[in-house]
Amino acid sequence: MLYKESLIYSMGTRVSFAIGLPLGLMFILRFGPTDVSRDFTVDLFSLFYCRPIIPIIISFIAGLYLAGEKIVIHLADYGYSLLMTSFFFSLYLNGIVWATYILAMGSPFFYLDDPMETLAPPVFWFTFCVALTTFTAGYFICQITQDKMYRVPKAPPTQKTKPQDFD
Fold this sequence. Notes:
- 77% of the residues lie in helices and 0% in strands.
- Helix 4 runs antiparallel to helix 5 and helix 5 runs antiparallel to helix 7.
- By secondary structure, the chain is mostly helical.
- About 3% of the residues have low confidence.
- The termini are far apart.
C-alpha cells in the first residue's frame, strides 16, 4: 500500500478519535453505569468491583478504532452515502460497547433467571444510541472524514520572475 493510500485509510480512525473520543468519554463518565466522582472519593477498588466502567471505556476506544477504519472503506470503496456510512459507524461502535456492557454486568447465572428482563434495557439503549449517534456525532465524524478524503490540495504558488534582458 502506498503511503498516500495508507494516510487516506487511516483518516477515518484519526477523525473518529479526535472528535468521538472526547464526546464519548464525557458521555460515558456522565451517564455511565457508575458515579465516577463518588467512586474516587470512596476508594479505587469500587471502580473495578461490579462496575463495568473500565471495560466500557476500553471497548469504546477499541470500537472507535474499528469503526473509524471502516468509514473510508464504506465511502470510497463501497460507494455508500454519508448517512449509510454514519449508520454503519454507529452500529459498529455501539455494538461493541453494548456487548461489553452486557458481558461485564454480571455472571452468566444472572441472565438465566429472566433473560428478557435482564437484556431488554441494554437492547433498548443500544437501539436508541445507534439512532441518536447516526444523526449527530457519527454523521459529523463521517462528514469531516469525507471532506478530508476529497480535499483537493492547493497548487504551489507560482514564482513571479522579473523580465530578463537578453543582451
